[in-house]
Amino acid sequence: MVIVWINGAFGAGKSSTARELVDLIPNSTLYDPELIGGAMSWLLPQKRLAEVNDFQDLPIWRRMVVDTAAALLAEVGGVLVVPMTLLRQEYRDEIFGGLAARRIEVRHVLLAPDETILRERILARTPDGSDPEALERVRRWSLDHIEPFRAARADWLDADAYAVDTSALSVAEAAATVAEALGSGDAISCGIVQTPEPTGETLAAGVLLFDEQDRFLLVDPTYKPGWEFPGGVVEQGEAPARAGMREVAEEIGLELESVPRLLLVDWERPQPPGYGGLRLLFDGGTLPAARADRLLLPGAELRGWRFVTEEEAAEMLPPVRYQRLRWALRARERGTVLNLEAGVPVG
After folding, report:
1. What is the predicted pLDDT for the residue at 97?
2. Lower CB count within 10 Å: N or C terminus of the chain?
3. What is the rounded CA–CA span in Å between residue 92 and residue 241?
4. Confidence check: pLDDT of 259 > 70
């Protein structure tokens, strides 16, 4: 199962190119997540809709994009061609990671006309049955998002997607160029770790690794939004501490010399669509500067790593992980082990 995700600025011609591309790729189907956005006005209370400026900011939209893609592929098979602008890297992580968890291959293509050409195309748009005021709103929306698109290209988008300069290409030529890149393998699959989604509560082990300034290591996964501790799900028949050691070796290329000490056990309550389960944090000890400088960064799994302070982590971690971190640090200071339920010590 394959998705060809056509990204680009608003007004870059994603939808028209995608329609042409479906005719060039055998057994392919057009899937426009814009339809999911339109459904939000029917599914959610107006109060909730008023809290966001873009339907992409709604977690339900991002989940439904993934779930609908999986259901559609199960129904029709083959290839889905998806025209949709994604400018926020954390949304890319969440959506592409969710697709990868369902064993769906994603090929990310970027339509990238010159900015002057893009502006001309936006202003040249003509009514397609909509009223002039609606057309003007679309034009203004597209123009207002050129700067965020430029920033996303500089920050992450160009490194993630196969870019096609469509400045001098017609829609048919752009589609043919994309099809050729897909066929030749130039537009390769996104390197996302395909961790199967859990079907029940899980047991996960994280490891805190410290530098000589007593800062601890956080990693930035490519397959989900937000920073995290090194670690992962404990496999069947695997000891939790050994799972943490395995994950550290796989993620950053560091072989721990001794079994890490348990700092806390935290029960994470199920919050659909998540199943929750037990989360363990271990103390992996202090890394000498020479070892810390030799950490590896597998491109398919991690985008980056940083040693940070507790205060810095508050801006980087989701609240549930930050609470877990705070209590793990307190347990380390006291030389004890803490039992938590949903981030709160008990017993």
Report:
1. 85
2. C
3. 31
4. yes
Give Cα separations from 215 to 7, 240, 286, 300, 304 (angstroms).
Answer: 38, 24, 9, 25, 16
pLDDT for res 93: 86
Q: What is the pLDDT of residues 170-218, one digit of tens each?
A: 999 999 999 999 999 898 888 765 566 677 788 999 999 999 999 999 9
User: How many residues are listed for the chain in this entry?
Assistant: 347
More confident residue, 340 or 201: 340
Tally helices (H) and strands (E) across the chain: 14, 13
Pairing between strand 202-210 and 231-233? antiparallel
Residue whose structure tokens are 């996964």: 221
Q: Is the Cβ–Cβ distance between 309 and 215 less than 8 Å?
A: yes
In the numeric block, which tokens belong to residue 123?
């202003």
Half-sphere exposure of 123 (CA within 13 A, CB side): 6
- Greatest alpha-carbon pair distance for the chain in Å reads 70
Question: And the tokens for 74?
Answer: 């199960």
**109 vs 162: CA distance, rounded Å:** 5
Q: Can you read off the two tokens belonging to residue 126?
A: 């003509």
CA 123 to chain centre: 32
- The CA distance from 209 to 230, in Å, is 8
pLDDT of residue 178: 96
What 3-state class would DSSP assign to 219? strand
Structure tokens at 308: 């940070």
Is the Cβ–Cβ distance between 337 and 331 less than 8 Å? yes
